[in-house]
Every structure is written in C-alpha cells, then in structure tokens.
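Q: Sequence in, structure out?
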Amino acid sequence: MNKTITLRDISKALNLSVSTVSRALTDSYQIGDETKQKVLAYAKEHHYLPNRMARSLKEGKSRSIGVVVCSIDNNFVAQMLDGIDHYCTAHNYQLIIMQSKESFEQEKACVNLLYAGGIDGLLISPTYQTTDFEYLINLQKTGLPIVLFDRLSNQIQTHKVAADNFKGAYDATLHLLNNGHRAIAHINSNTKLSMATERFEGYKMALSDAGIAYKGELVKFCDTPTATALNENLNNAINELMAVKDRPTAIFTATDLLSTNCLALLNKAGYHIPNDIALIGFSNTDLADALNPSLSTVHQPSFEIGSLATAQLLSLIKHDTADFETVLLPVQIEIRASSQQIK
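A: Exactly. Output:
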C-alpha cells in the first residue's frame, strides 16, 4: 500500500526541522540553496504532495483563481486560457475554469459558485448579454479581486486587459480601402461591450479618413447566443448585404466565429472570394492558411492577454490597490488570399 509522505517524514529523513523543510519547499529566502536542493530532491524522489487545504487554512488563501469565459471550444479563448494556465503554474496557483455559454444568468451562477468555493480572485470575460455589472461590483466590495480580460466595460473599475480593437479594425478596413474597395460591409456582434463598439468605431474612422460616407445598410449586428443561432443570423445578414443596390465588394468581420463562419457561408452560397467579395476579419484560428481561400485576419496576442491579466490579478491579490490600469495590446494584420486586390 502506498503511503503519502509528510513534512515530518522528510524532516526525520534529512535530520532537519519541520519548519526548515516547509520553508525550503516554499522557496523561502531564509533557507540556503544547498538545503533547498536537498529537500526538493528528496520530496520529488518520494512523490511528496503538499496538503493544499492545510496550507490554505494557515495562509488564509486558497491559492486558486476562478476564470469565466464564454466557451472553451474557441481557438482564441483556448489560447488565452493557455496564457492564464502558464502564469498560474509558474506562480503555484490552481485554476478553476467555467463557461458562461454567452448567458448572463449562467455567468452569474458560475461566478457565485466560484466565490462560494473560496477563490482568491476572479478573471472574467463577460458574455455578450452582460450589461449590468452590479453583481461583480458587490463582490468587489466584499474584497474579491476581479480583473476583466478580452471583453471590457467601463461600468466596473479594475484592471483590464484586451487587444487594441480600435486599431485592429481601423487597419483591417484600411487594408481593404488600399486594395481598391469602396463599398465595405461590416458584420459585428450585437453587444455593448467595448470589444464590439471599438471595432465598429475603428471601421467607421477608417472610412471617414478615406472620405467615404458611412452607410448603415452595410452594417449588420448579429446575436450569437449559440452556434445554430449564429449561423442563421449570419446567413441572414450576408443575404441582406448582398441584396443592397450598391452591394459591398468587401466585408470586415469583427469576431473569430463571425469571420470563419462568414467564409464558409459565402463559399456555400457560391461566391468567389475575393473576386466576388473580399473578406478580412478578427480571427486567431490556426487553420487560416488552410481555409479555402486562406483567410486574411486580424490576429490578437491571445496568450499574452491571458498571461498579463493573470499577472494583474495576482498583483491585486497580494497588494490591493485603487490604481487600476487598462492595457491594450497591439494586434497584427495577416494578409492572405481572401482579401487580395480586386482585379
């Protein structure tokens, strides 16, 4: 029968005090490197596992953080979670991930469950439905550190980390303008979160700077609660855009799912991309080069967003501060076949 070794077992075997072993395992500056290496080597050889619950009770911390995202079956979200996990692992924090599935009610249920479980802090990328942040503000008042990432709102004061959505949208639209397009459509998510509004504003500013009048009939906002609804609403939006008298020659899409699904639906409808209609959109899909045609994208630093948001949260957990900052990381325009210059 396997026997789990304890701090006392290690202390007896190495003829050290329990407190010395404990400090060595937590990399305390009070313990010399030689002793640390001896303790760590013995602990590893004998498969020592720290009693997380006992440590939590002693420190008054669970050393766990909660993360709420829309869905983990999304390339961009998965890449952000990888950044979060990487930072947590490096700093000895446990990660608890929950999905809101773009439901505000489910988001609240997830957050309440995590809070009841004793997390030290919360990372949250709100749902498209979320317009009321009062419940998060109330949790902040109880002392729970909260950081927003990817999808931001001005309704709550805290650290926030996202991509530079305005600049990405501006540059994507400018790319289409430079390739000769003048009737450029825009498809976005139907939400008030900054991610969508900033991408919409970047699109409009690029048109304005090029001296092109904004046309409301070339802009569609889609509800995207489920994959089925997204495809149905997106298909309707495309059909309406292509029925406009002076129909668009290019489309700029604002999210990962809208971009890849738009390409698929245009192909299914028989449009030749980019000759019939050019396309560029925000997307972090690893398959952009393999799509037909290859998809021009606005690529976001997803791993870095997750990592930096986690660093901000752990900083809040250790040193509560009112000096909050919003960090917008630069994006990269990656040009492929779908947005090539019109002939």
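The chain has a mean pLDDT of 92.
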